């Protein structure tokens, strides 16, 4: 007998094959389209780079023309004074040494007056200057640009030469271009853009470029070839782009562009490595898409197959979640059979368990609130004790005119302090309360404790516990500033950091020894007398931790004889709906 294949397995196979086939077809079509677009964009991008390089050469051409005209003007004005001309040539060369190799005058006997250090020393006639002088003499109204050649003083260079009209004797002005500067610019583009650029003459000579990035080229004697095609043949072809193959059969794309000012060509030779890299990334994406399609096909097929046996699988899954602790799960199977009865019984059991847990949580929450109220009750008597001591001190010092000020501040502080301690207040209200408190202490000790506030924008309405800052500020005055024995500033800084809100109280007082910091925030046993300096800080620390969790609370940073910073850490999420 043939083995029977169940309906869920048949559905799984059919759906899987259909979805996967659709994804493969769409992926193949997308790949072909993107491949074509990448080739088009690559040509467009290369043309943009060639345009930029041509603009760079056009700017340089204008600069060289300006140099020639400057020399012409200077020489005509000082034709009888050779020393002045030498000085001006030197200054002009030094000013443009980043772009030119030399600036000089060519006499009819082929000797020179040069601007560079070498040509100022060696000015003997050279026969290789004759073509330059003759070209200038034959084209007296224009500037002549030579082919690249090897100069004895300037190395591999191109010379721009212009005849000096109006001089009493034959004279030509010459500027040797610094081809190294142009080549360095091309090399930077080659490296950054992963391109292979060069500047060529119409005869196929390399002016600059290619030397550091040969790629598929065969470079020799300042020219090159690709396969059996020479540089001159490439430049003679019509059109701006062509495709060739190297001796190894590697395809190479070539773009060429004539320069605007020079009779040169810009040429880009790309072995398609950049495009192949882009296509390789696309292939990786395509493979990822196929994997995602495979997974999607499996998911859809599994979902449809699972739907056939949904009641049993649903009940089994829900029971597993309850076993793992998810008591919010409800099993609702509206069937008029055993599955329906089992579902109703399971739901009733979960409701009873959730109710028991809810009652236990309410009990724990009530205990936590009572503990918070106990902690809060420790602050108010302590605060009132210190405030009344301040009033007493004012009267003792005979500062009767300040009593009204102290009493006014005390009334404001008492009205603030006796309100519902469980209700949170804004940071703005806490700062106002601290300001009243410091006003009392300034009068009491006849000192000036300056209150400095650095509050990040938007945090003035941040909700905090009532009486959060006043005990910390009190601690700064009594212990940082020796109970009013010295005066100084108290800075309150509020800011956001990593999902938390930090509120710092910083004083520049005596500081706290390192061995005592770890014990300050530890609560004292109820049968031990608690010193006054310990009540506020461990109280506030406990309130924050009880309300927000163990990871929040106070942090104390202190440097003896320099500063103390008490930082309260709150979750930033408490900003919304908690005030």
Automatic annotation (TrEMBL):
What protein is this chain from? Answer: Two-component sensor histidine kinase
What transmembrane ranges does the database entry give? 12-31, 285-308
Q: Which PROSITE patterns match?
A: HAMP (PS50885), PROKAR_LIPOPROTEIN (PS51257)
Q: What is its main location?
A: membrane
Origin superkingdom? Bacteria
What membrane topology term does the record carry?
Multi-pass membrane protein
Q: Where is the HAMP domain?
A: 306-358
**Which SUPFAM superfamilies does the UniProt record give?**
ATPase domain of HSP90 chaperone/DNA topoisomerase II/histidine kinase, HAMP domain-like
Q: Where in the cell is it found?
A: Cell membrane
């Amino acid at each position: 007998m043939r083995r029977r294949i169940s309906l869920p397995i048949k559905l799984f196979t059919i759906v899987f094959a259909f979805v996967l086939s659709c994804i493969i077809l769409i992926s193949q079509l997308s790949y072909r389209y993107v491949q074509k677009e990448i080739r088009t964009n690559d040509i467009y991008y290369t043309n943009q780079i060639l345009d930029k390089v041509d603009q760079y050469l056009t700017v340089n051409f204008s600069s060289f023309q300006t140099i020639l005209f400057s020399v012409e003007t200077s020489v005509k004005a000082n034709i009888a004074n050779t020393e002045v001309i030498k000085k001006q040539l030197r200054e002009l060369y030094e000013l443009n040494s980043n772009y030119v190799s030399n600036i000089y005058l060519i006499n009819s006997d082929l000797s020179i007056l040069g601007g560079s250090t070498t040509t100022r020393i060696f000015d003997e006639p050279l026969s290789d200057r004759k073509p330059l002088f003759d070209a200038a003499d034959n084209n007296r109204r224009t500037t002549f640009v030579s082919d690249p050649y090897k100069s004895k003083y300037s190395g591999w260079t191109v010379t721009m030469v212009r005849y000096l009209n109006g001089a009493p004797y034959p004279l030509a002005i010459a500027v040797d271009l610094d081809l190294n500067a142009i080549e360095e610019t091309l090399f930077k583009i080659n490296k950054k853009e992963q391109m292979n650029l060069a500047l060529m003459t119409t005869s196929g000579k390399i002016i600059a470029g290619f030397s550091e990035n040969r790629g598929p080229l065969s470079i020799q004697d300042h020219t090159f070839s690709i396969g059996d095609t020479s540089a001159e043949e490439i430049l003679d072809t019509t059109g701006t782009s062509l495709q060739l193959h190297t001796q190894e059969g590697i395809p190479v794309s070539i773009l060429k562009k004539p320069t605007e000012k020079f009779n040169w060509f810009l040429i880009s030779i790309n072995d398609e490595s950049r495009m192949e890299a882009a296509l390789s990334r696309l292939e990786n994406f395509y493979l990822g898409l196929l994997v995602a399609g495979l997974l999607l096909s499996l998911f859809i097929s599994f979902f449809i197959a699972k739907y056939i046996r949904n009641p049993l699988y649903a009940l089994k899954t829900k029971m597993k979640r309850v076993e793992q602790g998810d008591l919010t799960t409800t099993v609702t199977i509206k069937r008029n059979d055993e599955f329906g009865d089992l579902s109703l019984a399971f739901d009733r059991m979960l409701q009873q368990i959730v109710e028991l847990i809810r009652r236990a949580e309410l009990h724990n929450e009530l205990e936590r609130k009572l503990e918070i109220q106990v902690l809060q009750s420790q602050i108010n008597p302590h605060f009132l004790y210190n405030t009344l001591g301040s009033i007493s001190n004012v009267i003792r010092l005979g500062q009767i005119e300040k009593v009204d000020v102290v009493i006014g501040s005390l009334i404001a502080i008492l009205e603030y302090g006796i309100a519902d301690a469980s209700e949170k207040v804004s940071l703005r209200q806490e700062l106002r309360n601290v300001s009243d408190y410091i006003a009392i202490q300034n009068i009491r000790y006849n000192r000036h404790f300056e209150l400095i506030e650095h509050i990040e924008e938007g945090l003035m309405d941040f909700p905090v516990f009532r009486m959060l800052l006043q005990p910390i500020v009190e601690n700064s005055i009594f212990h940082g500033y020796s109970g009013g024995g010295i005066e100084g500033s108290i800075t309150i800084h509020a800011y956001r950091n990593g999902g938390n809100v930090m509120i710092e109280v910083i004083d520049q007082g005596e500081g706290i020894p390192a061995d005592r910091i770890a014990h300050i925030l530890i609560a004292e046993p109820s049968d031990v007398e608690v010193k006054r300096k310990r009540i506020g800080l461990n109280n506030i620390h406990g309130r924050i931790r009880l309300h927000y969790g163990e990871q929040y609370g106070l942090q104390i940073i202190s440097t003896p004889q320099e500063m103390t910073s008490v930082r309260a850490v709150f979750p930033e999420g408490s900003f919304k709906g908690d005030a």
